[in-house]
Amino acid sequence: MRRSLLGRVWPNAVAVLLFVFFVFPVYWMATTAFKPDIDIISRTPDFVPLHGTLAHFDKAVHASGFWTLVRNSFTVTLGAVLLSLAIALLASFALARMRFRGRKAFVLVVMVAQMAPWEVMTISVYMIVRDQDQLNSLLPLTLFYMMMVLPFTIWTLRGFIAAVPKELEESALVDGCTRVQAFGRVVFPLLAPGLMATSLFGFITAWNEFPLVLILNKQSGQTLPLWLTQFQTNFGDDWGATMAASTLFTVPVVIVFLILQRKAVGGLTAGAVKG
Amino acid sequence: MGAQSTGTRTRPPSGSTPPTPPPPADRGRTAGGLAARGAPYLLILPALLATAALLAYPLLRNLLISFQNLNAFQLIQHTTEWTGFGNYTDQLTSSAFWHTAFRSVLFTAANVALIMAGGTLVGLLLNRLGKRMRLLLSLGLILAWAMPFVAGTTVYQWLFDSQYGVVNWGLAKLGWHAMAGYNWFGGQFSTFSVITVMIVWQSVPFVALNLYAGLTTISAELFEAARMDGATAWRTFRSVTFPILRPFFLSTTFLEIIWVFKAFTQVYALNAGGPAGSTETLPVYAFIEGVGNQHYGVGAAISTLTILILLALMSYYFRIILKQEDDL
């Protein structure tokens, strides 16, 4: 291994530049949120804020209906994730452990469904929800978000279930468990990391969803993404408050990502390698 | 949809085992073969029902609406007026549609080229870095990846703000004084530039981290052998890395094409397709025609045409995926 000094330095230098490129928008969002207005509206940007203030967060949190929006977002997201976990657990068990006619066709349906172009289906979804007189309510959002994350959930859980050694289940059957008991006592506890990873990805997708709530819930039942895009219009050019709102919205996602990295990545890859 | 589809799919399957039938003990135990044979169908039934009601039906409904003359008036009166292929012929003969379609294709091509080139370079760099620097860069990539689209949009609006945006300040500082106070959202090209920087920033982490994961599966001896033969970095990439990771590159490119082509949130939330509709891509055009101008039938027809383009792209994608995954 002979590499010149230059050959050893430039990859690190480029890495630092790239790090700055990727982190800077996040950094700028968070620091702007804590800066007093004089430092935000200034001709020379303040890169290292020393005078922190919570005024912008105060303003964002006390914006009208903020807590309702938080509750709506959590209700819709958690509802969608839990529903899809329940449905996917059944289907992925069949996929991973059973052989049946039409299995391949079902796999194909799941794969196609995962690529569903929701962004261009909003008009028909609007008509369907309007027919049911369910505009501005949380139920249709929950159901459609559930459908958005369902294929991915089935697909990943299948991998995790396949990764649980079949011998464990078989020995439980030999010991006199029924199929359902064997699943509940042996497979299910081993699935914990898989369930967590899968549901966290579902959480992110549903938490961030924008096009559907934009068209369905104009008057009420809004969620945080919709609020955030209208924030700037509603508050004028109050960048401090806008960035504080963005930060508040981003924090749960970043926490989820960090959990995923630390705890679930091992499980995720273990499940994935097996296919 | 960066976070949605993870690397689970893109890695070459190692020793994929075909799914085995249920243990024989089971067949004998449960009362009768009929119940056992029905069990898998019962298990997938809820998923099938949900897919039929929440995905297949909206798609079908979209098709039906696209054959209707459905505007604000018909919507309120609850009347159904069929127009046959009227909406389609209107669109396919209008220059606005073709301009938008052409713009969408160009926009997708530019973004995907930048994402794939950037993602590949960053992925290769990750493989070359020492442990500590790799961790640092990965952290940066993950933070950008984790950033929700909507929050990303507000941040980019702030970064590129004409008066107090840090980008204009930086460009002026670097000597480009005309950029002080420049309004990025006032023109077509400049708006697209901001959208592109943002989408590339959001999408490169997915490509780079997955490529790095793929690179670690290539045995180091191959690179060693290439170096012994005096291969340049470019030659090594072309003759060793690329052929081995070809399925990864193909499937990722198609995924990115599909994702960028149907990108709605970023384009709409940043500038709502403005100024004057000059940055509308097909999904945004369908939304603005259909919902904004309340020509739901027309919007549905544009949606259907967009879905057809996406279907063509997806069929290629699935051909690639099915070839590499025989474990179905």
In short:
Chain A has helices at residues 5-34, 37-40, 55-61, 66-97, 103-114, 122-131, 138-163, 166-174, 179-190, 192-208, 211-216, 224-235, 239-273. With 275 residues, chain A is an all-alpha fold. In chain B, helix 7 runs parallel beside helix 13 (265-271), helix 9 runs antiparallel to helix 12 and helix 14 runs antiparallel to helix 15 (296-324).
Please describe what this structure looks like.
Chain B: Residues 1-31 are annotated as: Disordered. Chain B: Belongs to the binding-protein-dependent transport system permease family. Chain B: Residues 1-14 have a biased composition (Low complexity). Chain B: Its main location: membrane. Chain B: It is a multi-pass membrane protein. Chain A: InterPro entries: BP-dep_ABC_trans_perm, MetI-like, MetI-like_sf. The complex is a heterodimer of chains A (275) and B (328). Chain A is an all-alpha fold. Chain A has a single domain, classed as MetI-like fold, CATH 1.10.3720.10. Chain A is 77% helix and 0% strand. In chain A, α4 (66-97) packs across α10 and α10 (192-208) runs antiparallel to α13 (239-273). The longest helix of chain A is centred in the C-terminal third of the chain and has 35 residues, at 239-273. Chain A starts with a helix and ends with a helix. Chain B is mostly helical and 328 residues long. Chain B has a single domain (62-324), classed as MetI-like fold. Chain B is 72% helix and 0% strand. Chain B is built from 15 helices and no strands. In chain B, α9 packs antiparallel against α12 (246-261). The longest helix of chain B is centred in the N-terminal third of the chain and has 35 residues, at 32-66. The model of chain B is unreliable at 1-30 (pLDDT under 50). Chains A and B meet through α1, α4, α5, α6 and α7 of A and α1, α2, α5, α6 and α7 of B.
